[in-house]
């Protein structure tokens, strides 16, 4: 794939920020949207807009066909056996909370354990903390070893017949670490636990096959994969979803309703109460078409090469400390770093004056920050449209940071 050609599909990238060409290197926070996705949103509202699953009129039928078509695209994209296992959510956060409510709160009690990891985004920690608070279960975390990978020996020692859920990020949003989900899942299943995988940073960037991963649930979020905000997905094994209580109550999720009780619709509708984000779901389908046309393998290869280049160039910067795995084949396109004792926010602000957008802060991963012994880091994160010149501009801008701040905090 040619990232220079790909860039032409993303209108937002063609602009100057602070008098410099925009280098958008904050893709782990959210990705930009190709014209195809923007156009589909407009087209849908101009031609097909209607509610889904309700109306027999033509627009209602068209909207439903497009919405269900998007569900099928998500299923195929992650190797799910059928669209029945795909639930549209608002985000990865909502997918994880759905599981914490509809699975964990109905099944856990005192003495039970949930295992997460020290490198999770807060959404894969706090959702389970709240479930533990309500059920008396305990949350434990697989330690991070050498600031880069999970300590799988410690994980094996943590597993027991008390373990009910093991929930792990596929790719870390701070370190970029690609976690060995298949191995983790196999061991969890041997202990009788279910396995949740947070794919927020993986599904946009590498080929995903939930069958090969061996997890029971997989969550994703559209806005990091070229789709709008407000749309995400949860895949679950159908038998587990069928056995679960609903999450939200309301329209579309019921089979029948009396005043004193109700019965539930079949999956996946049981988990989609109320009017869903129809246009956003359809645009997620368009984003998936777009990514597939380029090819997830090609996107992954491009990000490996760009990350390799970024790691090489960033190592030239004096006093830089880079976190996470050093081999680009073992990580996603995320590079977190600090410059001496200069605060990451100063780094972020100064490079912005060079037109370079990176994130600075704790990245919603405070336990990991604590483990790394830092309060914050700067983070450059890449996607299919990023090119080497943008890395060069970042490195040049970092030179300016050192000149201006002189290693002071
Ligand atoms: N899980 C991981 C691994 C993430 O990186 C994020 C968002 C989420 C879950 C939550 O996604 P949401 O769409 O529900 O918000 N991560 C980041 C980030 O690293 N910078 O901004 C958002």
Radius of gyration: 22 Å
Write down how many β-strands occur, each being a DSSP E stretch of 2 or more residues. Answer: 19
CATH architecture descriptor name of the largest domain: 3-Layer(aba) Sandwich
Largest pleated sheet: 7 strands, mixed
**CATH topology assignment of the largest domain:** Aspartate Aminotransferase, domain 2
Low-confidence stretches: none
| Shape by Cα distribution | globular
Proportion of beta-strand residues? 15-25%
Number of helices: 14
Bound molecules: ligand 7TS
CATH class of the largest domain: Alpha Beta
Q: Structural class of the helix and strand makeup?
A: alpha/beta
State the domain count.
2
Query: Mean pLDDT, rounded to whole units?
Result: 97
Helix content: 40-55%
Alpha-carbon distance between the termini?
A: 41 Å
List strands and helices in order, with pairings.
Layout: H1 3-7, E1 16-17, E2 20-21, E3 23-24, H2 35-48, H3 58-77, E4 86-89, H4 92-107, E5 113-117, H5 123-135, E6 138-142, E7 144-145, E8 149-150, H6 152-158, E9 163-169, H7 181-190, E10 194-198, H8 210-213, E11 217-221, E12 232-236, H9 238-243, E13 254-257, E14 262-264, H10 278-294, H11 296-314, E15 320-323, E16 334-339, H12 344-352, E17 356-357, E18 359-361, H13 366-372, E19 377-381, H14 388-405
Parallel strand pairs: 3-17, 5-6, 5-9, 9-10, 10-11
Antiparallel strand pairs: 1-2, 4-12, 7-8, 11-12, 13-14, 15-16, 16-19, 18-19
Helix pairs in contact: 2-10, 3-10, 4-5, 11-14, 12-14
The protein binds ligand 7TS.
């Amino acid at each position: 794939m040619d990232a220079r050609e790909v860039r032409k599909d993303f209108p937002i990238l063609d602009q100057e920020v602070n008098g410099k060409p925009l280098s958008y290197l904050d893709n782990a926070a959210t990705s930009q949207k190709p014209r195809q996705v923007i156009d589909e949103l407009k087209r849908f509202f101009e031609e097909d807009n209607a509610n889904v699953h309700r109306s027999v009129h033509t627009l209602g039928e068209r909207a439903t066909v497009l919405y269900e078509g998007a569900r099928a695209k998500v299923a195929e994209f992650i190797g799910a056996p059928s669209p029945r296992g795909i639930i549209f959510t608002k985000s990865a956060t909502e997918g994880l909370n759905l599981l914490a409510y509809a699975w964990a709160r109905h099944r856990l009690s005192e003495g039970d354990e949930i295992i997460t990891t020290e490198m999770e985004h807060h959404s894969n920690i706090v959702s389970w903390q709240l479930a533990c608070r309500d059920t008396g279960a305990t949350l434990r975390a697989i330690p991070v070893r050498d600031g880069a990978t999970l300590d799988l020996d410690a994980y094996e020692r943590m597993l027991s017949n008390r373990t009910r859920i093991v929930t792990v990020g596929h790719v870390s949003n701070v370190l970029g670490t690609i976690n060995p989900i298949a191995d983790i899942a196999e061991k969890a299943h041997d202990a009788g636990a279910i396995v949740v995988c947070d794919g927020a940073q993986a599904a946009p960037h590498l080929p995903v096959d939930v069958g090969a991963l061996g997890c029971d649930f997989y969550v994703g979020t559209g806005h990091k994969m070229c789709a709008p905000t407000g749309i995400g997905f949860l895949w679950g094994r159908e038998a587990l979803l069928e056995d679960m209580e609903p999450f939200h109550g309301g329209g579309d999720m019921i089979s029948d309703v009396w005043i004193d009780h109700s019965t539930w619709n079949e999956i996946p509708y049981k988990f989609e109460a109320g009017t869903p984000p129809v246009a956003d779901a359809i645009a997620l389908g368009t984003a998936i078409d777009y990514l597939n046309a380029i090819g997830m393998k090609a996107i992954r290869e491009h990000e490996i090469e760009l990350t390799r280049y970024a790691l090489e160039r960033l190592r030239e910067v004096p006093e830089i400390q880079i976190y996470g795995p050093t081999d680009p084949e073992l990580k996603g396109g995320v590079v977190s770093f600090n410059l001496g004792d200069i605060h990451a926010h100063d780094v972020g602000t100064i490079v912005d004056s060079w037109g370079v957008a990176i994130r600075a802060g704790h990245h919603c991963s405070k336990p990991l920050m604590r483990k790394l012994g830092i309060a914050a880091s700067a983070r450059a994160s890449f996607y299919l449209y990023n090119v080497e010149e943008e890395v060069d501009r970042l490195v040049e801008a970092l030179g300016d940071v050192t000149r201006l701040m002189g290693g002071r905090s």
